[in-house]
Design a protein that fits this description.
mainly beta, outer membrane lipoprotein receptor (LolB), chain A, ten-stranded antiparallel beta sheet, 14% helix
Length: 239
């Protein structure tokens, strides 16, 4: 049986093809109960995100009003004017979430950190399985109405800023990513089940264009109400 890590990377376009690119930009329409819960109902409702593929960085533009943009890196997050002038910055941003629960409001800089961290992870998956220091282990299959999904436990190295150190990926028989589980450490370790659908091929790479995130129960099940986050992606550009 093909190693699941290798099957997944090949199913999404292959590592050799992926490594020809340095960044990806995607137009986003986002919804769900998370954003108003965090006091940021419209800041990133419609925006474009660009993420790095060889280093960890991300930028959302516009970021709220006045054509601002964000700049996320693991150790720093900033808001910039349209001409690149820095307006605000936060160093060691993850430390600012100490003591947070799901209900704790976010500042704009904290929102920029969460959104940058999240979208960098999502858009680089499953190629992050080949990232230096990332460890994987295949788990027992997960039964679904469409047949069993193979599962992979992923442990990320400390230098990667992501939702949680250990996450679980679910793949269909072709090796396409269908579900992504994690605990959002910066929101009180809130457990999420992230459902992934509607793939499109861009420059030889397959990207899902529909993402829906729900609250995950201890047994791995989830309900669809409330819808925690919705992300619809379009106009995907690799460069």
């Amino acid at each position: 049986m093909t190693r699941l890590k290798d099957l997944a990377i090949e199913a999404h376009g292959g590592l050799e093809r992926w490594q020809q690119f340095g960044q990806v930009s995607v137009d986003l329409v986002q919804g769900g109960v998370l954003w108003p819960l965090k006091g940021q109902p419209q800041t990133l409702e419609r925006t474009t995100v660009t993420v790095g593929l060889k280093k960890q960085w991300a930028s959302h533009a516009p970021f709220g009003a006045d054509n601002r943009r964000s700049r996320f890196e693991p150790g720093r997050v900033a808001l910039e004017a349209e001409d690149g002038t820095m307006l605000e910055e936060l160093l060691d941003p993850r430390a600012s979430f100490a003591g947070h629960t799901l209900q704790t409001p976010w500042t704009e800089l904290q929102l920029a950190y969460f959104a940058g961290c999240a979208m960098w992870t999502y858009l680089n998956m499953p190629f992050l399985l080949a990232w230096p220091g990332t460890e994987t282990e295949e788990l027992e299959p997960w039964p679904t109405d469409d047949g069993d999904w193979r599962r992979l436990a992923v442990r990320f190295p400390a230098e990667i800023a992501t939702h949680s150190t250990v996450q679980t990926l679910y793949f269909d028989v072709e090796g396409l990513l269908k579900r992504h589980d994690y605990d959002v450490e910066i929101a009180g370790n809130t457990p999420g089940a992230h459902i992934i659908e509607d793939y499109a091929e861009v420059s030889g790479i397959k990207f899902p264009t529909k993402r829906r995130i729900y609250a995950r129960q201890p047994d791995g099940s989830f309900g669809t109400d409330p819808l925690v986050v919705s992300i619809d992606l379009s106009n995907i550009r690799l460069g």
